[in-house]
Amino acid sequence: MEHITLLLGIVIVTALVFDFTNGFHDTANAMATTISTGALKPKTAVAMSAVLNLVGAFLSVEVAKTISGGIVNEDGLKTEVIFAALVGAILWNLLTWLVGLPSSSSHALFGGLIGAAVMSMGWSSINGGTVVTKILIPAIAAPLVAGIAATLATRLTYRIGRNTDTKATAKGYRTGQIASAGLVSLAHGTNDAQKTMGIITLALITGGVLNPGANPPMWVIVSAGVAIALGTYLGGWRIIRTMGKGLTDLAPQQGFAAQTSAATAILASSHIGFSLSTTQVCSGAVMGAGLGRKGGVVRWSTATRMFVAWGLTLPAAGLVGAGAEFLTKQGPWGVGATAALLVIGSAVIWTLSRRNAVDHTNVADDEIGAAPAAEPAGVVTTAMAAVTPPPTGSAVASADVDFVKATIASPTGTAADPARPATV
């Protein structure tokens, strides 16, 4: 560490700031459904998630090696390029957090890195094959796989419990949710903390502190784990609300199925070095669980906004990263100007967020910025509901019936009987 220059020190601190924003941006991945179903209180949930994110950071370095030695060519890469990439990633993270959209922190980092590298050295600096196989393909496949798995798991849980008492099984599934939420948090630390480890390692390589292909030093692993854990503990309450209330209404059975499916997909990808978006995986699992229940509704207006954010993340962060790199290339004053713009932009976003504050005291409320409790079912939801076998026997208890009635709104029927035309 004695060879670290001032610029390299700034890059390392900025990378840890990104890791911090990644933590509070992605808290919803593990804890949104647990909070929305009442399995854990909000502060307890984020504290548990923070500890397990820290533990997960020590489980693997495969994703870190993908980032530090796979996406861009290290030859000729300058330290200020990494700084510019982080600026693009942080600003996009904060912007999507402000509007409550669960976009991908991972893709924000990748987009910023690609944009800054292209501005600095041209398109030849990008390893296109790695970008396609380890970023783009997982970005499309992972949420689909997690969604399908969650749909099937939800159907299975209702089929298994069709002859049991709903209230008794709900308590058991809430306990299962706590365990599965812990698994998602562990998986998130394993996958997402490594991205910051990888970017710091890449900076150390460009600065001549480490040799190309080196693994992250222990101090990098520890600092990245602590940063993401602290960010997680603060809780990204706006995105927790969107994931827990805005996409669909989840019963404990669905929450358990969604979290278990997401954790399995994330851990498997981390093992083979796929740097996928945990946000996309968890969002796909939540929507799959919503479709897997008879009468479940996915609010496609919210989902559409989320899909748009997913598609914009790579290019938007890339453009900001490229602009930041254009400034940093001008010399020390350009680096200073980029740092100032990052601080000013972050302060403006934070000030705007205070106008409609969301925290642990109101994150589960329906009336503050949440999606309507009853959005008409769309074509996809209707088709899925039609082929999903309904729960039978004592499983259709009065509480469960009330849940379905509150979830589905009929434009022509009544609340008591959606199939019956409304009378005048």
Pattern of helices and strands: HHHHHHHHHHHHHHH
Biggest sheet features: none
Structural class: mainly alpha
User: On the 0-100 scale, what is the average pLDDT?
Assistant: 75
Percent range for β-strand residues: under 5%
Task: Give the overall silhouette.
Answer: globular
Number of strands: 0
Uncertain segments are 367-424
What keywords describe this structure?
single chain, 424 residues, mainly alpha, 15 helices, 0% strand, globular, disordered C terminus
Describe the protein:
The structure is a single chain. With 424 residues, this protein is mainly α. The chain has one domain (6-406). The chain has 15 helices and no strands. Helix 1 packs across helix 8.
Write a brief caption for the model.
The chain is globular. The protein is mainly alpha-helical. It contains 15 helices and no strands.
